[in-house]
Amino acid sequence: MLVLKFGGTSVGSADRMQEVIDIIEKNPGQQLVVLSAMSGTTNDLQQIANTIKNKEPDLASDLIAQLESKYVRVLTDLYPYKDVRDRARFLLRPSIRLIKDKLESSSFCPVDEKEILAQGEIMSTALFTLLCEVRQINVAQVRALDFIHTDQNGEPDFARIRQDLTRLLIPLEEVQVIVTQGYICKNHSGQIDNLKRGGSDYTATIIGSAIDADEIRIWTDIDGVRTNDPRIVNDTLPIRKLSYREAAELAYFGAKILHPTCVLPAEKANVPLRLKCTMSPDSPGTLISRETSKRPITAIAAKDNITAIKVYSHRMLQAYGFLRKVFQVFEDHKTSVDMITTSEVAVSLTIDDVRNLPDIVDGLSKFAEVESDTSYSIICIVGNALYDESQHVHRIFESLQEIPVRMVSMGGSRNNISLLVKTEYKVNVMRALNHLFITSGEEVYA
Ligand code: ASP
Ligand code: MG
């Protein structure tokens, strides 16, 4: 079975939804289709939840009315016949009702917010399934809330997911297209929850690994991964093949094409993951698999809004246990560290989530001198054989002669070198590094 995932833009209008059906109609076998909410809807729902939370009922009620009329327009575009349109309106009614009820209820807690956010995917899949029926496709729906479970840590509970999904699919053996919601799930207490913004990719790879799919195809509006950020650098090249490891590094460090955690389930189950473009469906996209390309340098990506923290202490000299104390502070404040470099008397680290920065600085100050500084970017250089020949590392640093680099992290994995620079230098760094690819030529990436 194939697992296909279409993002918000791919189902963002009636025309785009029709194009998605054109794509799935071409696949002969059975397929499980994971959909995001229509583009903009999750943001709208978040805004509605925020206004209810902030006790701004008039504003919330305006926003709900706007959302409703947006969907009325979508229905007019999607279904020219009144009877079908009425059915669609009936399908959307529980979602609209739920949102209005939250506005009227006297209390509002985090679960209420999650329930509101879940309606985007519930509505997009309802409309899409109906459209498939109109186009006479043999279609059925399975509800993500019936089988995507997370555990106490908010991580997917793979054993339960596999068990429940397998059971749900048994009666659907003859159905060609099975539609489900991305992003949403039930947590270990059985409440509605989600896999965080952009989580539909994750849903697709969780499902792909649970059912041991032949391939997981993530459809977006970008034609696969490129060697560099095309918004910054002109002459980027398409990358047709990536290893899981390279893809994971790239997804995390800013190549906005994939949800960072979504590579893992595919890698574990060894299911190929292909990125495809709805605008040019015939293009091969990018295939992510176990196969390594042996390319020394594959791609460059950047991640902004990074804060650097320097922890300095003479007590670190020849002492053991110091790093444990440092990391304990980050653990206590539930903040993950991206880059780390050490010297004999100092450790430098970076974080991107600064919500608990004041507490972290307080905690570290109890045993060390601490400096923190914002407005950095991590430039991530990814490749399969970065260290096989010294010339690659040499070429990277040679191209950075003019740039003040604050931190360098290399050797952590075979696939990555990370540089920390002030964000004002990011564009220069990305452009300077781009020439590393020019000599390699297009065919290398085919
Ligand atoms: N609808 C959710 C979001 O906008 C999930 C997704 O699209 O992947 O973040
Ligand atoms: Mg997305």
The CATH architecture category of the largest domain equals 3-Layer(aba) Sandwich
The percentage helix is 25-40%
Number of domains: 2
N-to-C terminal Cα separation, in Å? Answer: 26 Å
What gyration radius follows from the Cα positions, in whole Å? 24 Å
What is the count of helical runs?
13
Helices and strands, in order, run as EHEHHHHEHEEEHEEHHEEEHEEHEHEEH
Number of strands: 16
Strand content: 15-25%
In what order do the strands lie side by side in the largest sheet?
A: 3-4-2-1-7-9-10-8
Gross geometry: globular
CATH topology name of the largest domain, in short, is Carbamate kinase
Brief characterization of the structure:
The chain is of the alpha/beta class. The protein has 13 helices and 16 strands.
